[in-house]
Amino acid sequence: MENREVAAATAKNDVAPRTLTFKNKIAYAVGDVGNNFLFDMGQLYLLNYFTDQVGLPSAAAGTVFLVAKIWDAFADISVGTWIDNRTNIGKRGKFRPFILWAAIPLGMLLIANFTTPNFSVTGKLLWAYIAYMLFGTCYSISNVPFGSMIPTMTRNSQERSELASYRQAGSNFGLMLATIGFMPIVTALPNKNIGYTVAVVVFAIFGVLCQWFSYANIKENYPTPVKKKVSKEEIKASYRALLKNKPLLVVSLVNIFTFSAFNLKLAVQVYYCQYILKNTTAESWLGFFSIGMVFVSVALTPLLTKKFDKKMVYILGCAIWAVADILGFFFANSTFMLVFLTSIAYLGDGFTSALNWALISDCVEYGEWQSGIRSEGLVYSFFTYFRKLSQAIAGFIPGIVLAWVGYVPNATQTATALMGIRGLMFIYSAVLAVATIGVMLWLYPLTEKRYKKIVADLTVRRQNKQLAPEYVVSD
Q1: What is the pTM of this model?
Q2: Per-residue pLDDT band at 230 (split at 50, 70, 90)
Q3: Which of 6, 350, 413, 427 is the most buried (most CB within 10 A)?
Q4: Is the predicted pLDDT of residue 8 greater than 70, yes or no?
Q5: What is the CA radius of gyration of the chain?
Q6: Residue 144 CA to chain centroid, in angstroms?
Q7: What pLDDT is recorded for position 9?
Q8: What parts of the sequence cross the membrane (predicted)?
């Protein structure tokens, strides 16, 4: 009887209801445009702003990223725990209110990071630490709920892949606009200090507006019932369940590799264009074509996941990425070759980036199936904890390497410094893309067939009242 029930539930899961409209998907994508308008300023330009405008030593500036991102990682876990155990869920839902209320503080804190007062070096460094750590904390309060929403928006596996692709499209559209539009604003002003401030204010305003649009047009279709006050033992049980969630552990590990490589490349490309190509306008071309190429992979991802496991599409993306960056190390000596080879690398990265959010939603189901505990916020924040660690690495390593190879701001660089910049741009990411292939191939346990069986098991458990229903579809 049990097998028949599971088979029936599996069949039901294959045709699970599609709960999202096109408007919902666009709104979720626009939300990540706003996230990237606010977040990518730090990843793209803050290190360069610290070293070349504020006058902070390279190693000290890199350490700001290391400390702030480690702080952010723990902030993500704290926010995820808080969200999962809220007892005052109102009509706006479990996750949506955070997107609404955190937007303006987030925009103001971003501006503060690019308006360093004329203090001593020690004072400037202290300002950098405080402003960036506060920004990261506020970003956690906004972004952890935003990313945790997918399991409450749809249970359809294919629709989750589509939603993840829309989100990645929004993310990369925001990144592309930030890459193309930021520096022209900076250079159009009388001096770069004023230019940085004006540019960041423009992107902060549009970032807030995008987040509000997203809030108004997305919906929690499987709303969470209000919980009673949670005991410390229940919270501990939730943390123990995370450590037994093998798919989550694997996806979190490979994101240390892929996300640190991606963010390090974003931080270093400013230096690569300025000192190796001697063409600062190359960064705008790089943003338009290479990040634009991600849209191709985002469009292809749902098509590929209809025929192949998400795991294999993920590995394919890393293989394309690794080959392109190895070639880039040897041949990216002109703007054309840099843009061409980086575009191919970003095509591969687009598959991994688009699938991350779908894989994490699958990890939520796996965790509930394995432990009986469903915790979207905690699972997502655990994942972003490792992404923040990767960002810490991506911000710290360039500062240390630049200091080690003798980088001098706004000067002609030595051959050693130029080789250091080239290695950071290409070799680091190629090596980690190859490492990701190995980890996903040998350690990631979820196939589409197994995932459908897990969801079917959960359906049967709920029907048999072995687990209390977590959600009820809203009208």
Answers
A1: 0.68
A2: low
A3: 350
A4: no
A5: 22
A6: 10
A7: 44
A8: 95-114, 126-148, 169-188, 194-218, 248-272, 284-305, 389-407, 419-444
Report the pLDDT value the prediction gives residue 73, as an integer from 0 to 100.
Answer: 77
Neighbours of 354 (CB within 10 A): 32
Q: How far apart are CA 268 and CA 349, in angstroms?
A: 17
Q: What is the DSSP letter of 363?
A: H
Cβ atoms of residues 151 and 361 within 8 Å: yes
The phi-psi region of residue 290 (left if phi > 0; otherwise alpha if psi is between -120 and 50; otherwise beta) is alpha
Lowest mean pLDDT among 27-36, 276-285, 361-370, 458-467: 458-467
Q: Report residue 250's pLDDT band, with 50, 70 and 90 as the boundaries.
A: very high
Per-residue b/e over 3-29, b at no fewer than 16 CB within 10 Å? eebeeebbeebeebeebbeeebbbbbb
Q: To which CATH superfamily is domain 21-222+232-463 assigned?
A: MFS general substrate transporter like domains (1.20.1250.20)
**Torsion sign, CA atoms 157, 159, 162, 164:** negative
Distances (CA, A) of 321 to 284, 290, 430: 21, 12, 7
Cβ atoms of 324 and 341 closer than 8 Å: yes
Domain ranges of the chain: 21-222+232-463
DSSP conformation class of 88: -
